[in-house]
Amino acid sequence: MDLGIRGKSALVCAGSKGLGKGCALALAREGVNITITARTEAGLQVTADEIREAAPDIIVTAVAGDITTPEGRQAALAACPKPDILINNAGGPPPGDFRDWAREDWIKALDANMLTPIELIKATVDGMMERGYGRIVNITSSAVKAPIDILGLSNGARSGLTGFIAGLSRKTIARGVTINNLLPGPFDTDRLRSNASVQAAQNGRTLDQQLKIMAEANPARRLGAPEEFGAACAFLCSTHAGFITGQNWLLDGGAYSGTF
User: Fold this and answer.
1) What is the pLDDT of residue 239?
2) Sequence-separated (6 or more) residues with CB below 8 Å from residue 111
3) Does the pTM of the predicted model rise above 0.90?
4) pLDDT of residue 199
5) Residue 96 region, left (φ>0) first, then alpha (ψ -120 to 50), else beta?
6) How far is 62 from 96, CA to CA, in rounded Å?
7) Is the dihedral of CA 239, 68, 103, 147 positive or negative?
8) Contacts of 56 (CB under 8 A, 6+ apart)
9) Which residue(s) pair with 138 in the sheet?
10) DSSP annotation string for 42-55
């Protein structure tokens, strides 16, 4: 299927690894010019070269910086001021017990996983509507549907973003701009491995043992691959997805057992 987005431009946040990288690669293979951000310069350049190799006909721009800061957002938007596609993504806050979190921990989580996406949307959505085309995808978490007790900071911040998007997305679609959320379940990423390490330590297991338990507990009997997450993201960004907005797509191998 031709997704109809060749020649468009995308800003992909936290795109040097994991799910962000999966989205960047999938979009690049569809002919989208890519700007990726990440905090670590070395890893960012490695991924940029990998994208160029996978899609040699597109333009790849790498911007080092922390997207959760005003300076990081300014640098990213200077490199890609008029994106047709915006992929909001940032590392989640650490797991733990809510009794141990101070106000500063909550503010940091809100800044990264709620307020940063909103700031980037505010900076780009009007231009998208003026041009008559835009796709905004927020990478959130399956915890929005099924909260995970040790991820309280993430549960709260990402649910706040979800509520905000539910209202805004109905106001932009008439002018060709859709806004949706992708909710990853257990994908094999550094983030998942970090959380699994905490669980492994709590239960006296090795990391490999914990990962195997997590995989076998999923109905798919495996962890997800970032490439398949990227494919779902690319479709939501396509010309074929113009009637989809304000939705929360759960990609979890069937782990969530609810009907709604």
Assistant:
1) 98
2) 68
3) yes
4) 86
5) left
6) 33
7) positive
8) none
9) 88, 181
10) HHHHHHHHHHHHH-
Residue 107's pLDDT is 95
216: tokens are 């076998």
Report the distance separating Cα 216 and Cα 238, nearest Å: 33
Residue 130 pLDDT: 98
| pLDDT at residue 137, rounded to an integer | 98
- Tokens 């670590």 locate to 40
- pLDDT per 10-residue tile (average), the chain, 260 residues: 97 97 98 97 95 98 97 98 97 88 95 97 98 98 90 94 97 98 94 87 94 96 97 98 98 93
Q: Which amino acid is at 17?
A: K
- Asked whether the beta carbons of 12 and 36 are under 8 A apart, the reply is yes
CA–CA separation, 112 vs 128, rounded Å?
Answer: 23
Closest Cα to residue 35, out of 74, 71, 86, 70? 86
Which H/E stretch holds residue 139?
strand 134-139
CA distance 198 to 93: 13
Task: Give the HSE-up count for residue 91: Cα atoms under 13 Å, Cβ half-sphere.
Answer: 20
What is the biggest distance separating any 2 CA atoms in the chain, rounded to whole angstroms?
A: 56
Please answer whether residues 34 and 58 qualify as being in contact, where contact means their C-beta atoms are separated by less than 8 angstroms.
yes
Distance between CA atoms of 253 and 215, rounded to whole angstroms? 10
